[in-house]
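Structure first, sequence second, as always.
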C-alpha cells in the first residue's frame, strides 16, 4: 500500500504537459481547469524520489535528494548536512477545522527552515568548485549559511541590513571564514550591493532560485509521504511570505510531478500572508491584478513587524502565485498591528498545544518573540476560517517557518 498514492489519479503525460504550459501562459482559463478529467489509474512508486537511508525527521534534503532536477554529489551533501528535519503535527481542532502544522523549524539545525535551503546552497556552491559564496540575509539565512560553511571552512561573505542585525547569531561566525558586512540601507539596496559584489569577485550569490526550489521541493515530497501513510489530503496550506520562493517551490514540485504523469485529484488551496508594512502581493491581489505595479511596492517601509519578511519586489514570483491561487483556490491576507494583537493569543495557544517552542529574547524584562513568520502564517488560517473560506471539517496545513527556542540537534 505504501507504493500507491491514495486518491491520486493519472492522466496521460501528454495532456498534463499541455495543460501545465497552457496554465502558465493563459491564466484566464485557470478557473475552468480546477477539476481535470480523470482518465486512468496507475501506481506511483515514491521510492523513485526517496532515499530510505535517511528519515525526513533527520533531513528532508538527504531523504529526497533523488527528487532534485539535477543529480547532486551525495557524499558531499552528507558531509555538509547537519540537521534539516521536518515533521507534521496534528490534527489540532479549531472551530471544527483540522489544523496540521508543517513544522519546518524545530528539527532544523538553526531552528528555522533556512537550514534546508543553506544546506543545498553550500553543497551546490562547493560542487561547482567555487572558492566561496556571497549571501544577503535578514538574519536567518546568514546564520544558517555561516553554520554550514563553518564546518567546511568555506569562505562566505554575508551582507545584512542593519535593521535585521539582531537576528544574526554571531556565535557561529568565525572571522577566519566569514566576513559580515552590515549596511544601513533598505533590503533591496543591500541585495543589489551583495549581488554586484558576488559578480565582481566571481562567486555564487546564494541562495539562488534553483537552490530555493530544490530545498522546497523536499517539503512537497515530505508532505506527499505523510498524505500516503496517513490516507489524508489537505484542502488548504498557508505560509507567511516575503519573496514567495517557499510556496512557489512547494507547488512547482507538484506541477513537475504532474508533467511526469502524476495527477492529484486536487492540490491544496493557498493562503498567502503578508505584513501590512511590506505587502506588495496583497496590494496587487485585492485589485485583481496578476502583476505588480510600482504603486504596490513600498521601497522604504516603516514600522516593520517582522524583518525576515522584507522583500519589497517579488515581481515574477507573484505572477506565478497568482496563477496557483486562481487554479487551486485561496487568497492573500494582510496582517497589521491591531489584527496581530487580536489574533495573537489564539495563535500562540495553537502553537503551544503543538509543542512548538518559539524563540524569545529579553527586552526590558519581557520575553519578546524573535520571529513572527510562523504566527502570521497561522493568522491567515484564522482569518480564512472567520471569512468562511475554510469550512468546518476541512484539513489545513499551516506552514510554520518561524525560529524555535531550542533546535533539536
Amino acid at each position: 500500500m505504501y507504493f500507491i498514492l491514495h486518491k491520486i489519479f493519472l492522466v496521460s503525460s501528454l495532456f498534463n504537459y499541455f495543460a501545465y504550459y497552457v496554465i502558465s501562459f493563459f491564466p484566464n482559463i485557470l478557473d475552468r481547469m480546477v477539476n481535470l478529467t480523470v482518465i486512468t489509474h496507475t501506481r506511483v512508486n515514491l521510492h523513485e524520489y526517496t532515499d530510505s537511508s535517511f528519515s525526513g525527521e533527520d533531513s528532508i534534503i538527504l531523504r529526497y535528494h533523488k527528487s532534485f532536477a539535477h543529480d547532486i554529489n551525495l557524499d558531499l551533501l552528507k558531509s555538509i548536512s547537519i540537521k534539516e528535519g521536518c515533521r507534521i503535527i496534528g490534527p489540532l481542532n479549531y472551530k471544527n477545522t483540522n489544523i496540521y502544522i508543517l513544522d519546518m523549524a524545530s528539527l532544523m539545525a538553526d531552528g528555522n527552515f533556512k537550514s534546508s535551503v543553506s544546506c543545498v546552497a553550500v553543497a551546490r556552491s562547493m560542487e561547482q568548485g567555487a572558492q566561496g559564496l556571497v549571501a544577503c540575509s535578514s538574519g536567518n539565512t546568514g546564520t544558517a549559511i555561516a553554520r554550514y560553511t563553518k564546518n567546511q571552512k568555506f569562505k562566505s561573505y554575508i551582507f545584512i541590513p542593519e535593521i535585521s542585525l539582531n537576528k544574526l547569531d554571531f556565535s557561529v561566525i568565525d572571522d577566519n571564514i566569514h566576513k559580515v558586512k552590515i549596511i544601513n540601507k533598505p533590503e533591496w539596496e543591500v541585495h543589489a550591493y551583495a549581488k554586484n559584489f558576488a559578480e565582481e569577485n566571481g562567486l555564487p550569490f546564494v541562495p539562488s532560485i534553483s537552490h530555493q526550489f530544490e530545498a522546497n521541493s523536499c517539503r512537497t515530497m515530505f508532505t506527499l509521504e505523510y498524505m500516503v501513510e496517513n490516507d489524508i489530503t489537505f484542502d488548504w496550506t498557508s505560509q507567511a511570505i516575503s519573496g514567495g520562493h517557499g510556496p512557489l517551490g512547494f507547488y512547482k514540485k507538484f506541477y513537475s510531478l504532474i508533467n511526469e504523469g502524476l495527477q492529484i485529484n486536487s492540490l491544496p488551496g493557498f493562503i498567502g500572508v503578508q505584513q501590512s508594512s511590506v505587502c506588495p502581493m496583497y496590494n496587487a491581489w485585492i485589485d485583481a491584478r496578476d502583476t505588480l505595479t510600482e504603486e504596490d511596492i513600498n521601497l522604504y517601509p516603516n514600522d516593520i513587524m517582522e524583518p525576515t519578511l522584507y522583500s519589497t519586489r517579488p515581481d515574477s514570483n507573484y505572477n506565478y502565485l497568482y496563477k496557483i491561487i486562481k487554479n487551486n483556490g485561496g487568497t492573500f491576507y494582510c496582517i497589521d498591528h491591531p489584527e496581530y494583537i487580536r489574533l495573537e493569543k489564539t495563535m500562540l495557544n495553537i502553537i503551544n498545544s503543538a509543542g512548538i517552542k518559539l524563540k524569545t529574547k529579553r527586552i526590558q524584562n519581557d520575553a519578546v518573540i524573535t520571529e513572527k513568520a510562523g504566527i502570521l502564517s497561522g493568522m491567515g488560517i484564522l482569518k480564512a476560517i472567520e471569512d468562511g473560506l475554510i469550512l468546518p471539517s476541512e484539513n489545513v496545513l499551516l506552514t510554520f517557518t518561524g525560529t524555535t527556542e531550542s533546535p533539536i540537534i
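Margin note: The first helix runs from residue 13 to 25.
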